[in-house]
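Please decode residue identities from the backbone states below.
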């Protein structure tokens, strides 16, 4: 990831949680957490792009061990403070498109609201597959604006510009079909795909929740 984007996320770190909830809708991340709480036996897990650690504690409770990474040292400092009582979590500053782990290291990869910011989402999925064991699984939770009305789309773009102040140079608005197609191309087989929506807010962004395993 470029120095420009690393700087962007460093500057965003102190207000990331409020910004992301304002842009996507305050109920979407809690709904993703509900889905994660349904998961079992996640084994040795790596969280790619953990940000401020919103999903990390839930993941830690569902796994044998957890490694959480982010490109931004500032984001990780907030995550460490947020989770200072969880000594078992290992944090690393790392680009999720260039992981410093051996092939076949992890049982589960989790990417929460991060794939859309990859320089190349397809290459990011290839890297995830590389570090997974042969029976490994990937879970992706990623925003999907394809369900918005025209007016809803305008509001979303206005909120994003207002809250981000400048749009990240990488930003891929991926719908479910695009993600599933990329998973297929990178050697995964989808075993679960759901759309998470906040029915109480017509301007809230939907989220894809997709689980895939390495193809036999």
């Amino acid at each position: 990831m470029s120095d420009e984007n690393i700087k962007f996320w460093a500057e965003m770190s102190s207000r990331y949680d409020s910004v992301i909830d304002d842009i996507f809708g305050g109920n979407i991340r809690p709904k993703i957490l509900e889905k994660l709480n349904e998961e079992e036996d996640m084994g040795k897990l790596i969280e790619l792009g953990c940000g401020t650690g919103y999903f990390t504690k839930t993941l830690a409770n569902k796994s044998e061990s957890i490694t959480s990474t982010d490109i931004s040292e500032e984001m990780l400092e907030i995550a460490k403070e947020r989770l200072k009582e969880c000594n078992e979590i290992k944090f690393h500053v790392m680009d999720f498109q260039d992981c410093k782990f051996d092939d076949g290291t992890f049982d589960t990869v989790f990417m929460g609201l991060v794939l859309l910011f990859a320089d190349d989402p397809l290459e990011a999925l290839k890297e995830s597959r590389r570090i997974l064991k042969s029976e490994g699984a990937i879970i992706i939770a990623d925003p999907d604006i394809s369900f918005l009305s025209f007016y809803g789309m305008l509001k979303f773009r206005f909120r994003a510009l207002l809250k981000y102040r400048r749009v990240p140079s990488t930003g891929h608005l991926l719908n479910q079909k695009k993600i599933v197609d990329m998973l297929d191309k990178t050697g995964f087989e989808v075993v679960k795909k759901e759309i998470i929506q906040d029915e109480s807010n017509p301007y809230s962004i939907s989220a894809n929740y997709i689980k895939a395993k390495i193809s036999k």
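Observation: The mean pLDDT is 89.
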